[in-house]
Amino acid sequence: MFWNELANGHYYLVALDRSGDGERVVGYAGLAFAPPDEAWVQNVGVRKDAQRRGVGRRLLEALLGEARRLGARQVLLEVAVDNAAAQKLYAQYGFEAVGIRRGYYQPSNTDALVMMREHED
Q: Residues in domain N-acetyltransferase (predicted)?
């Protein structure tokens, strides 16, 4: 699925930690633009040992900047209903719950909360 998203021109970012002896991937995020004015956050993932350090926040801000650059008036995403920390982060950026996708995450059969943010000029 990830390679398919890249092949279809979806926008992806990688967060690197360059401290220490080298660099390591600590997070990634993706955005799909659906013309004329809608974008979907494909994912925001941060390594467990890098969480609570602002990596997800910076990735989300970059995705929202790209969505704005592309002319998206709505940005949507899905987040696990039991991921309160991510829901709180998204709410801080103006996302509101607009629906539920039952059994969205597999194999756990966890529901997804659909959240949306509208951009005004």
A: 1-120
* Comparison of pLDDT for 44 and 1, the residue scoring more: 44
90 is annotated as an active-site residue: yes
Catalytic residue among 5, 23, 90, 105: 90
Q: What is the mean pLDDT of residues 51-66?
A: 94
Across residues 69-98, what is the average pLDDT? 96
pLDDT band, residue 15 (cuts 50/70/90): very high
Contacts of 16 (CB under 8 A, 6+ apart): 23, 24, 25, 26
Decide if 23 is catalytic: no
- Sort strands 96-105 and 24-34 into parallel, antiparallel or unpaired: unpaired
Question: How far apart, in whole angstroms, are the C-alpha atoms of residue 97 and residue 117?
Answer: 9
What's the fold here for domain 2-118? Aminopeptidase (3.40.630)
Note the pTM of the prediction, 2 decimals.
0.88
Mean pLDDT of 35-64: 93
Out of 5, 61, 66, 78, pick the active-site residue.
Answer: 78
- The domains of the chain are located at 2-118
